[in-house]
Structures are given as C-alpha cells and as structure tokens.
Amino acid sequence: MSDFETADDTRIPDAVTLLTPMENTSPSPRSLMVRKLADIVVLPSGRISSNERSLVADILLQVADKVDTGIRVELAKRVARVAECPPALLRMLILDEPVVAGEILNQAETAPEDLLIEAANEGGLAHREMIARRKDLSTSVADAVLQYAETEVCMQVLKRDSCVLSPKAVNKLVAMSASTPEFQPLLLRRRELEPAHGFMMFWWVDAERRRRILTRFALDRALIQDALADLYERVFRSNEPDELVKEILIFAERRHRPRGADGEQVPMDVIIRTIRVARKNAPREIIEAVGLIAGVSSDLAARILRDPGGEPIAILCKSVGMPRDDFFSIYHEPVDEDGSAGSRISIGHFRYDGA
Question: What's the rounded Cα separation, in Å, for the pair 253 and 229?
Fold first, then answer.
C-alpha cells in the first residue's frame, strides 16, 4: 500500500468542505441593539430625562422579546438595579419566563405593587414563590399569591413576619391547616390570629398545640360580667326577654349554665349526672341536654363528646364549674404514684383546675 492509500472506511473531505467557513458566532444585530439600548435605559437620572428613558424602553419592548433568553436575562439583571425603569419594560420582564423574571423578582429592591399582583395572577408557581420571598411583600400582594392555595407559596408567606396578613388570608390559611399540618406552628405564632381562629384550629391540632391555643387565648371575663351584672334579673324575669341579649349574657358568664325564670343556675348534681350519662351513652336527647347545660349547640356538644383527645370535654366540665373530684369520678382518672388523689388532672397537655 502506498503512502497515499487509505483504509476503505476512511474518507478524505473534498476541497469544498475544507473551504467552508465556520459558523459566525458574533452577536446578532438584534442582540447588539438590546445591549446598546440597555446601556441607555440604565443611565442615571442626571444623564437622561424620563421621556428619553421611556422612548428607549418602548424600542426595547419591540425587540427584547425577539432575542435569546440569555440576552433577556442580561437585560433584566441591569434593569433590576434601576429604580426609574419604565413600568412597561419592567412588566414585560416580570411576566417573562422564570429565569428572566427572577432577576427582577429576586434582585430588584422595589417593584410596583400592581406589577407584583399581575405577576402573581399571570405568572406560574415559580413567579409566586419568588414574590412570596420578597422583602417588600405587602398585604395585597400576599393575598394575590395565596389565592392559588399552593403549599410552598403559603409556607413562604407564613414565614414573613414583617408582612401583615389580611383577615381573608388568615381565614384561608386556617382552613388549609386542617389538611396541612406544616401550617399549624407557623399560624400559631402569627399576631393576626384571633381567638376564633385559634379555637377553630383547636379541633384538628395535636395536644401540644391545643395547650398553646388555650394558653394564648385565655381571658378574664370579670370586666364584662361586672358591666352586665344588673341585666340578668331584668332579662331573665321578663315575660318577653330579648333573646339576643339573653344569649350574650349566657355567653359572657364564665360558667355556661342555663338559668331558670329568675336567672337561677341549674343544680350541679343535675349537670354531673347528665355528663356522666352522656359519656356512657349519647342518644340525641342527651347530647341536646349537654349542649343546653354548656350553653353550646347540640352539634358542638356531640363533637366534644366524640373528640378522642379529651381536652374538649375537660374544658366543658371546667366551664360549667364541675368540681375536680366529680371530674375525676366521671373519667376514672388514676391516683398519683403516692396513692393519693391528685389535685390536678392532665388530659393531653390540658391541666384541669376546676372548682
């Protein structure tokens, strides 16, 4: 074989192939235009007027969405540092794909609230996650990102102690916490949580969090009771009492016991017998009797009796003023290690300090 002969599977490129120029990798005219216009739009206020900046931004709007993603990312990085960026250009970049929008949402210290709300509504999950992490998260923007009930977004918002949540947002998050236990500890530390929210969550949180709810929302009704004391006789002795006022008077009293014609309380032995029977057998009429005794609805009384944790029935017994010994008797609680009856009983993390 001569020096110029080759193996059959080896091909020698022809002259045309060897002379074909390499692909041009220099920036396209569009890319160059975007970069040059970006140089202008980010100029400080002293070197460019607002009208000139707006004109440049309008030109960018026509070409920026027709260049590669990398060029748009570069543009967004530069725009994020400019407080005077025209809103139209900012809007285009914020609504772009996450890799572009992230340069604005993660880096820009300030952004118009209306644009953040629009990005939350028009963007995807990634946009809302980035918005939820912003330092300037406002109540309105939080409402916008929370409306989609996305777990990760909600977690980020709940961690933002500096953001004040609206009542609508708190209601939504409290409802979601029934099926999303991760929300519960974050919600229980929020200052916006009200007693009604806490007592709603009481039904689905664990024993430790029930204790926290009871500790946080404990209250003294003495001031209210003193102010309303003279109304009891007048309302309960009336032939046609104002039912709304009557209901509030019962609610305001620490011991939720029904009253007779003269406002007298139902005897404690009747209360004890009723609750003891309800614990063993709870037909509808007994449940209604427990509700009447405790000043709650029959549905709530049934829920209290069915609760596996024990804290609700302990609270009910305490609210009607049941003595400790009778409470021990009903629940057959064991004696202390020294053999003596305990003065307090714990169900879960709730401490019974009855009369």
Answer: 10
159-207: per-residue pLDDT in tens? 999 999 999 999 999 999 999 999 999 999 999 999 999 989 999 999 8
Query: Model confidence over 54-100: pLDDT tens digits?
Result: 999 999 999 988 999 999 999 999 999 888 889 999 999 999 999 99
Last residue of a domain, one of 111, 135, 166: 111
pTM, 2 dp: 0.71
Q: Residue 262's closest CA among 239, 289, 233?
A: 233
List, for residues 122-159, the tens digit of each pLDDT value: 999 999 999 999 999 999 999 999 999 999 999 999 99
- The verdict on 80 and 164 lying in the same domain is no
| Same-domain pairing of 96 and 131 | no
**Domain membership flag for residue 261:** yes
Q: Residue holding tokens 């008797």?
A: 329
Number of domains in the chain: 3
* 89 and 163 within one domain: no
Same domain, 259 and 293: yes
Residues 73 and 158 in one domain: no
Contact assessment for residue 212 and residue 185, using Cβ atoms and an 8 Å cutoff: no
Same domain, 131 and 202: yes
Domain coverage including residue 138: 124-218
Give the pLDDT band of residue 257 (cuts 50, 70, 90). low
Statement to judge: residues 212 and 299 lie in one domain: no
Whether residues 35 and 85 share a domain: the answer is yes
Contact, 333 vs 191, CB < 8 A? Answer: no
In angstroms, the CA 98 to CA 88 distance is 18
